[in-house]
Specification:
about 35% strand, 2 domains, OB fold (Dihydrolipoamide Acetyltransferase, E2P), five-stranded antiparallel beta sheet, Rossmann fold, six-stranded mixed beta sheet, binds adenosine-5'-triphosphate
């Protein structure tokens, strides 16, 4: 059981500020995902938490105790990377046992821990194989087992699934989450894939340019983004962000409807949109267009269900409505959420 906290964390490489002033606290037993574009500092943050990198400023705390000066092995943190770094000349069992041997754990206890981890992950039949004879998903499980036997207070996963193909990846993702739910070990999971982050996390932390932009439940990030970065990073396709009179007006593609399809919908904001192209996605349609009037023909995207696509008249300007409760406003200069204005 563990609560991980970082306070005022900064990491500079020369003049480059890889992390700047990160404050973040997990809850006990929580599964927190960290998401952000490539180069935003996710791996650096994990390396500082694990003790592989010294912060320029700030502290890392585990259960209220400052661990910043401690070496990695004294932190009770297990980190699993994308590259599994299994020893090719050792069997799966020996790979799993390696960190235990390094710590001088007795043979009997080692074997019991290997059996336990192999059973939890369903890899008992693989224990005598060499890594070269394993699939990507199996290797990932071995790396996981090796992290588990250390009985860490905290798991850190840094893009652990990114080398797997899409199907295996989806299954491995589900298994990882189940493993967490069974063991209850506080987990931080890094990914650049917002769908994965939102699907897996109890809470999602969004990073950009070395800073933490928002942390919240997937629903909070989706409905109440704190800034335009989060609004456009979370959700597929991203929120429409339309500059107008010093503010940015935002609404999600799936929240717009042709007026003709919702004549009775009350308390709505109306947008004059010219749809120029539609795209069939299977379960729904994407409508690409531009938005007229004060929005200066900004590009806009709507996601429409099969039963309303027939109301769209290609090439014509027509009214689309969005429930006012779902329209968001941001400052044009800072990108931060602001109070609603009339649209
Ligand atoms: P990705 O998703 O591509 O792995 P990331 O969000 O994990 O990216 P980091 O690996 O943390 O990003 O890197 C953040 C920034 O810090 C990058 O611009 C990187 O080039 C820089 N950086 C990382 N390590 C060092 C280092 N040892 N020396 C100099 N710059 C570094």
């Amino acid at each position: 059981m563990a609560v991980l906290e970082v306070r005022g964390l900064a990491k500079h490489f020369g003049d480059f500020k890889a992390l700047q002033g990160i404050d973040l606290a997990t809850r006990d037993g929580e599964f927190v995902t960290i998401v952000g574009p490539s180069g935003c500092g996710k791996t650096t943050l994990m390396r500082v938490i694990a003790g592989l990198e010294k912060p320029t400023a700030g502290d890392v705390m585990l259960n209220g105790k400052v661990i910043t000066p401690l070496p990695p092995r004294a932190r009770h943190i297990a980190m699993v990377f994308q590259s599994y770094a299994l020893y090719p000349h050792m069997s799966v069992a020996d790979n799993i046992a390696f960190p235990l041997k390094a710590r001088g754990v007795a043979k009997g206890e080692r074997e019991a821990l290997i059996r336990w981890a192999a059973k939890v992950l369903g890899i008992e039949a693989l224990l005598h194989r060499r890594p070269a004879r394993l699939s990507g998903g199996e290797k990932q499980k071995v790396a996981l087992a090796r992290a588990m036997v250390r009985k860490p207070a905290l798991f850190i996963f840094d893009e652990p699934l990114s080398s797997l193909d899409a199907q295996v990846r989806a299954a491995a993702r589900a298994e990882l989450r189940q493993l967490h739910d069974r063991t209850g070990v506080t987990t931080i999971y890094v990914t650049h894939d917002q769908i994965e982050a939102v699907g897996l996390g109890d809470r999602v932390a969004v990073m950009q340019a070395g800073a933490l932009r928002q942390i919240g439940s997937p629903q909070e990030l989706y409905y109440e983004p704190a800034n335009t970065f989060v609004a456009s990073f979370i959700g597929t396709p991203p929120m429409n962000l339309l500059p107008r009179d010093g503010v940015i007006v935002g609404f999600r593609p799936e929240h717009a409807l042709p007026r003709a399809a919702a004549p009775d919908l009350a308390d709505v904001a109306t947008f004059a949109i010219r749809v120029t192209r539609t795209e069939f996605l299977g379960s729904e349609w994407l409508a690409y267009g531009s938005i007229d009037g004060a929005f200066d023909n900004a590009k806009v995207l709507c996601k429409l269900q099969q039963d309303v696509i027939g109301k769209v008249k290609l090439g014509e300007i027509q009214d689309f409505v969005v429930s006012r409760a779902l329209v968001r406003f941001f400052d044009k200069d800072t990108g931060l959420r602001t109070a609603p204005v009339t649209v």
